[in-house]
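Quick one:
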Amino acid sequence: MKNSATGMAALGLAMAVGGAGFMMGGCETAPRTEGDRLSLSADVDATLVRFEQADPSLRPLLNAAVGYAVFPDVGKAGFIVGGGYGKGEFFEGGVRTGYCDISQGSIGFQVGAQSYAEVVLFLKKSEVAAFKSGNYEFAANWSAVALAAGAASKADYAKGVIVLVEPRGGLMAEASVGGQKFSYRAR
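Output:
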């Protein structure tokens, strides 16, 4: 019985690693076709409307931010090892200036799958420059604020970055360590 449980755990781990690799490997930051670009822009616009309706304090922060990234649909899954991926658009001065994607990996207790939307606000020029360099990442010690009325105005500005998250669907139990990595490509 012990060997069977060990074998099942190893199989689950292999499936999670393979799934995470598939989700993150071979993905391009910019949409490939004009139709994909239009679809992403429409999803980004709808996400911003939803976020602003849920939290009216967000608009003044968007206006004051040096830049912000909007990811309308980030999917993640895991069983011990997990991964996630999503595409978005980057804004500077309220104008779309590029495409971005988010990939994440984690290890620890986790099982399930979920999707969420994420908005990352950059309050410092140095953070925007780092993001646009293509090697920007959040470590395990960064935290996101769940989208709710007043959440944006109560967020911690100390690091120059605010992350707002809206759960969309699915269920995932986790106590894991991991981070998010971002890529950027100008329009």
